Amino acid sequence: PGEMLVLVLDELDHLFQNQGDVLYDLFSLAEIKASNVVLVGIANSIDLTLRLLPHLHTIGVQPTMLNFRAYVHSDLYSLMYERLHSLDGPVFDPKAVELLCRKIAATSGDMRQCLNAAFAALEIHVAHMKQSEGKGGSDKKVVDWQHMSLALGKCLKLPLINGMRALPQHQQMILCSIALMQEGEILLTLLFEKYNEMCKTNKISALAFNEFENACTSLHDQGLVALNKSKKKANLLSKSLKLKVKMADIRFSLQGIRFFHNILNN
User: Fold this and answer.
1) What is the DSSP secondary structure assignment for residue 176, as one 8-state letter?
2) Residue 98: its pLDDT value, please?
3) DSSP tag of 92
4) Are 161 and 167 in contact (CB under 8 A)?
5) What's the CA gap between 160 and 154, in Å, rounded?
6) Is residue 264 a contact partner of residue 215, using CB atoms and an 8 Å limit?
7) Is pLDDT above 50 for 92?
8) pLDDT tens by residue, 17-61
9) Residues of 213-242 as b/e, b for ≥16 C-beta within 10 angstroms?
10) Residue 99 phi, psi dihedral angles, 5° rounding
11) What secondary structure letter does DSSP report for 135?
12) How many beta carbons lie within 10 A of that of residue 98, not counting itself?
């Protein structure tokens, strides 16, 4: 055999077409006995193979899943201050940076959203400074928590709604099940029963429990829910799930899709 070839493909889901023939071939190529190809696929969705390539296991392919968790508050805070130290003088009030990092960590953990919101807050601050020039100037020389709060309101609301609308259908059904149950913290097994009931009523093939659990993990990684385990040795019965977004936002997001509009209003 020749030298090993490591093939790294980012945005793997963009190769999905014609029932996934290209992706099936790529995964199969790496699985062939004595193959010198190692395939590393990168995607934002942890359930990509389950959702787009459900028949991989039937051809003997079982890819190893490596899940990179979203950034937490401390990660975002450190990364933001690395960027801010390169600026001349203080530009952001520390309280504004703290608010920014905590809010993004609680919603998505996405550093790109952190930077976008910081830039939006800076634009708001500059606009306020220009407006106050003719009124004797402003004593606010840095971006404060009020500027940041306004920016976060603009940057987070629409992406959150659009993000939930763009989720795979089964993840949307899980969120819809949570909305209908109207409880704070829900045992994963009880949520699975509600989800199965919804699938059966609407004549949709339900996910198996391990696939359902992976879908919940994906929602957790996107900052929409929090998965919790009992402090005792974890088993399936001890796992629970709690919403990290407002129930009204779930209803508003899914109401825009006719399928879920009918479910939520029946």
Assistant:
1) H
2) 94
3) B
4) no
5) 11
6) no
7) yes
8) 767 788 888 888 888 888 888 889 888 776 777 777 878 777 788
9) bbbbbbbbbbbbbeeeeeeeeeeeeebbbe
10) -60, -45
11) T
12) 16
CB-based contact 195:177 (threshold 8 Å)? yes
Instruction: Check whether 266 has a pLDDT greater than 90.
Output: no
Q: Which two tokens stand for residue 142?
A: 């840095």
- Under the banding of pLDDT at 50, 70 and 90, the label for residue 233 is very low
Q: Tokens in use for 120?
A: 């939006």
Indicate the helix (H) or strand (E) that contains 184: none
Task: Tell me how far apart the alpha carbons of residues 12 and 172 are, in angstroms, rounded to a whole number.
Answer: 22
What confidence tier does 110 reach under pLDDT thresholds 50, 70, 90?
confident
Which helix (H) or strand (E) segment holds residue 158: the answer is helix 145-165
> b vs e for 127-160, b when ≥16 Cβ sit within 10 Å of the residue's Cβ?
eeeeeeeeeeeeeeeebbbbbbeebbeebbeeeb
Element (H, E) at 157: helix 145-165
- Greatest Cα pair distance, the chain, in angstroms, is 77
| H-run or E-run covering 23 | helix 21-31
How does pLDDT run across 142-185, given as a tens digit for each residue? 999 889 988 887 777 777 777 888 888 899 999 988 888 877 78
Q: Tokens 């993000």 correspond to what residue?
A: 163
| Rounded distance between C-alpha atoms, residue 50 and residue 209, angstroms | 12
Cα-trace Rg, the chain: 23
User: Taking the CB of residue 42, how many other CB atoms lie within 10 A of it?
Assistant: 13
Task: Estimate to the nearest angstrom the gap between the alpha carbon of 241 and the chain centroid.
Answer: 15
Look up tokens 């609680």; give the residue: 106
Nearest to 35 by CA among 62, 65, 5: 5
